[in-house]
Design goal:
Length: about 400
């Protein structure tokens, strides 16, 4: 879709699920009837007030929405430039933005008569949110998680088990999110009758990228209203971290047509965006291809084989990105940058020390970019960053990276 015929960035995707050259529906014949049924149900739900009444009730009374928009005063003073606001989605029940979307998908699954929910998870936050909502509604829950992530996100694995979910460690590839999603898709193809696949990010075949975005857009809708109430105007810059891209799309989407609002997505730069591909910056260091049912930017070799990628953060450790981000990148509506592990760790520590908030490693990447640009901006420049998860799950990873022994002291 050339830029001159885009009349609204909020119009996508087209009827085939494409955002410009990206997205679509690359799935096997077996899945097609299911995907079409899901699309029909979602299209119906979108305009059904009773669906949104149920969502709003649960968002308010179960999740604890709206999440606050918090002026990070000490961080602002420390950096000495732009005024920094944090959208506190880490305060949601289960500790991240993932539950915003899970509620929507599970309400749909119940309407479709599905009794078994499957999910993939990286950092474990989507798995925990899915296990939580399944427990609430008495549904069977199976979560696929890469074996490497099972190890580095152990607290979340235990939480999922406490909540009654079965956690299946996936040992193929590097044992991260990509591999978990492969196995979840395999499960879905073999259990089409009773199973609903609850995808945790704005990836997968149409209608998932648009549907997950729509459920996460509550973040941006609230941020808009809260910023108007606090400052009487829209923010100048939005910043969010990107794994598959759902918290970022959730924040960005309601602002896409506000051309004066600068939009920045932060990918995982790992050990640096280099030829060794020790990063997960799909837009910064990848090129278009097809993975997990959609066309998007991917880390791949010259033969189109998907590369494993790397990040200290399990939630950002994905060699692809949601197709809408690829489109926003190519149309230049949004900018995408990469932040390394080391930079994210510094931001993690600064947020703990200055704001009394232990952030997840994922939004620590976004914060590291805030730290880069805020000092150069004037004091009346408003930054809104999505603090999309809390860091309890990451303390062991951070301790290891900082060479701190967490074993018993005596
Ligand atoms: C706290 C947190 N933030 C961000 C992400 C990345 O996902 P997305 O890009 O879909 O928001 C994850 C994924 O697990 C997460 O747990």
């Amino acid at each position: 879709m050339p830029e001159d015929i885009i009349n609204s960035f909020m119009n996508g995707p087209d009827e085939k699920g494409r955002f410009g050259d990206f997205g679509g529906r690359f799935v096997s014949e077996t899945l097609m009837p299911l995907i079409l049924e899901l699309e029909e149900q979602y299209e119906h739900a979108k305009t059904d007030q009773s669906f949104w009444d149920e969502m709003n009730d649960l968002w308010t009374n179960y999740v604890g929405r709206p999440s606050p928009l918090y002026y990070a005063e000490r961080l602002t003073k420390h950096l000495g430039g732009a005024k920094i606001y944090l959208k506190r989605d880490e305060l949601n029940h289960t500790g991240a933005h993932k539950i915003n979307n899970v509620l929507g998908q599970i309400i749909l699954a119940r309407r479709m008569g599905k009794t078994r929910i499957i999910a993939e998870t990286g950092a474990g936050q989507h798995g925990v949110a899915t296990a939580t909502v399944c427990a609430k509604f008495g549904l069977k829950c199976v979560v696929y998680m890469g074996a490497h992530d099972v190890e580095r996100q152990a607290p979340n694995v235990f939480r999922m088990k406490l909540l009654g979910a079965e956690v299946v460690p996936v040992t193929s590839g590097r044992g991260t999110l990509k591999d978990a999603m492969n196995d979840a898709l395999r499960d879905w193809v073999t259990n089409v009758r009773d199973t609903f696949y609850c995808i945790g990010t704005v990836a997968g075949p149409h209608p998932y990228p648009a549907m997950v975005r729509d459920f996460q857009a509550i973040i941006g809708k609230e941020a808009r209203e809260q910023m108007m109430a606090a400052e009487g105007r829209l923010p100048d810059t939005l910043i969010a971290a990107i794994g598959g891209g759902s918290n970022a799309m959730g924040l960005f989407y309601p602002f896409l047509d506000d051309k004066d609002v600068r939009i920045i997505g932060v990918e995982a730069g790992g050990k640096g965006v280099n030829a060794k591909m020790e990063h997960c910056a799909s837009l910064t260091g990848g090129r278009p291809g097809v993975l997990h049912g959609n066309r998007t930017y991917l880390l791949q070799d010259d033969d189109g084989q998907i590369l494993e990628g790397y990040s200290i953060s399990a939630g950002l450790d994905y060699p692809g990105i949601g197709p809408e981000h690829s489109w926003l990148h190519d149309t230049k509506r949004a900018e995408y940058v990469a932040i390394t592990d080391v930079e994210a760790l510094k931001a993690f520590q600064l947020c703990c020390e200055l704001e009394g908030i232990i952030p997840a490693l994922e939004p620590s990447h976004a914060l590291a970019h805030v730290m880069k640009i805020a000092p150069e901006l004037p004091a009346d420049h408003l930054i809104c960053m999505n603090l999309c998860g809390r860091g309890d799950k990451d303390i062991f990873t951070v301790a290891k990276a900082l060479d701190v022994n967490m074993g018993p002291s005596d």
